């Protein structure tokens, strides 16, 4: 089951970020004064100024648009407007009607919309941004709805590694999208990147419907012993009866807020790494889109490998009698602090291509350690309500995904010389504040309000 969710996350995240690399080919930045959706016959330079030396190697006849950095930032962020709306409700809905239906439909709709993106771009900015918002609604349903699976499929002592395997697909997705998107954009044109990812997603959504089941009991192919092992290990954490959400207790819970705020600061880091790595490399080192795709994608292979490794190490530490809260906080600190620090010093390494790429590799790799920390902490403190809480924390975190492109686009347009430095310093400050709050207030014990309530009848 973890590997199926892993594949789903690769596809969803690949569709989410494919525009981050195609934008380099979609935009002609020679005229940033134009705010419209004008398609030109010219060939693009890099998205934030400075010539792209390989622009003339892009396919002829492919649409190119005059979008300023602010417009690009809004386009990048518009998908997250929709995601914010559905991450929490989809988690709650999946807990009621099942992850199979919620995520299956979400993946299929997301794939259809990604197929239509080139057409939407030709029809104008408004149509493109509306389609991106609706795409975000489907993506939010896919990401938020999947967490309900782990309430019924994930034994506590295997939780870190199983969730890490599933969530590491979110790191491999950008690798696949950015790597292949660069090649596709240069060889046959950027629209085909959307067609290929959309078509592949439609096929995989059908596989999801066939292979995924909401709980071990209803799965027809696993052994009886495995069913008994999973259900017995979760018997004390998951109630057979549906209980109402203790909303007041959730709102008053500092451990919950520590998860939410740290997820927000972590998402700010991830959004900058995923969304702006291609543009930063293009603007600083002026390499062509194919090479940019290769270089920008490789750090996410490290993230994928470190994420899976981190899950194995976390579960190993638990077998050595480390406290669960200690393991979660170690993983969260190692995933946040070194990564944001390495990103913050990048502006001082502009003369060194090798050092810059090395720092990006290490930063992306270490950041994925949070998959065994803050990313699954809601499963520890409230297993019965984890799908809702993880949806809420992801939904709040995606405010960062909305703010990052908007704020970054504004900073880059107002201060081209020091814009990247200011973006990375802001990242470091936000990331550090969220981490400090989590270190102080984060917990891993099941909270009293999350325990099963027994009703005594007289």
Q: Distance between termini?
A: 43 Å
Overall geometry = globular
The count of DSSP E runs of length 2 or more, i.e. the number of strands, is 2
Percentage of β-strand residues: under 5%
* Largest beta-sheet details: 2 strands, antiparallel
Helix content: over 70%
The rounded Rg comes to 22 Å
- Helix count, DSSP H or I runs of 4 or more residues: 18
Question: What structural class do you assign from the helix and strand content?
Answer: mainly alpha
Runs in which pLDDT lies below 50 for 5 or more consecutive residues are: 29-36, 38-56
Record the strand order, biggest sheet.
1-2
Topology order in helix (H) and strand (E) letters:
HEEHHHHHHHHHHHHHHHHH
Average pLDDT works out at 84
What attributes characterize this protein structure?
458 residues, mainly alpha, two-stranded antiparallel ribbon, 18 helices
Would you kindly provide a written description of the structure presented here, covering whatever features stand out?
Helix content is 71%, strand content 1%. With 458 residues, it is mainly α. A two-stranded antiparallel ribbon has the order 1-2. The longest helix is centred in the middle third of the chain and has 32 residues, at 254-285.
């Amino acid at each position: 089951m973890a590997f199926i969710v892993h594949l789903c996350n690769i596809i969803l995240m690949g569709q989410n970020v494919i525009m981050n690399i195609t934008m380099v080919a979609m935009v002609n930045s020679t005229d940033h004064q134009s705010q419209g959706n004008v398609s030109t016959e010219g060939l693009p330079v890099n998205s934030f100024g400075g010539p792209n030396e390989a622009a003339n190697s892009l396919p002829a006849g492919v649409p190119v648009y005059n979008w300023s950095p602010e417009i690009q930032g809004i386009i990048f962020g518009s998908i997250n407007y929709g995601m914010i709306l559905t991450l929490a409700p989809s988690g709650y809905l999946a807990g009621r009607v099942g992850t199979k239906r919620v995520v299956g439909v979400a993946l299929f709709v997301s794939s259809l919309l990604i197929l239509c993106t080139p057409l939407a771009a030709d029809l104008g900015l408004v149509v493109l941004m509306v389609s991106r918002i609706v795409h975000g609604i489907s993506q939010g349903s896919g990401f938020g709805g999947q967490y309900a699976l782990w309430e019924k499929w994930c034994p506590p002592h295997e939780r870190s590694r199983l969730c890490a395997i599933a969530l590491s697909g979110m790191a491999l997705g950008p690798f696949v999208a950015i790597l292949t998107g660069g090649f596709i954009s240069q060889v046959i044109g950027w629209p085909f990147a959307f067609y290929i990812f959309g078509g592949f997603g439609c096929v995989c959504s059908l596989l999801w419907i066939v292979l995924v089941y909401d709980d071990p009991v209803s799965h027809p192919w696993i052994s009886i012993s495995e069913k008994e092992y999973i259900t017995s290990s979760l018997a004390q954490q998951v109630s057979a009866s549906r209980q109402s959400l203790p909303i007041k207790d959730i709102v008053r819970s500092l451990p919950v807020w520590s998860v939410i705020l740290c997820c927000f600061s972590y998402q700010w880091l991830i959004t900058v790494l995923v969304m702006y790595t291609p543009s930063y490399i293009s603007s600083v080192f002026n390499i062509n889109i194919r090479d940019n795709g290769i270089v920008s994608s490789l750090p996410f292979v490290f993230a994928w490998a470190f994420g899976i490794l981190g899950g194995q190490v976390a579960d190993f530490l638990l077998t050595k009698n480390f406290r669960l809260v200690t393991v979660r906080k170690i993983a969260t600190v190692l995933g946040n602090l070194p990564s944001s620090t390495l990103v913050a010093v990048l502006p001082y390494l502009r003369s060194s291509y090798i050092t810059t790429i090395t720092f990006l590799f290490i930063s992306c790799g270490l950041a994925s350690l949070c998959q065994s920390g803050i990313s699954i902490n809601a499963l520890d403190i409230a297993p019965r309500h984890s799908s809702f809480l993880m949806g809420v924390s992801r939904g709040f975190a995606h405010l960062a995904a909305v703010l990052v492109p908007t704020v970054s686009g504004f900073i880059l347009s107002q201060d081209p010389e020091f814009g990247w430095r200011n973006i990375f310093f802001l990242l470091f400050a936000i990331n550090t504040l969220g981490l400090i709050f989590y270190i102080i207030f984060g917990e891993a014990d099941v909270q009293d309000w999350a325990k099963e309530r027994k009703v005594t009848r007289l």
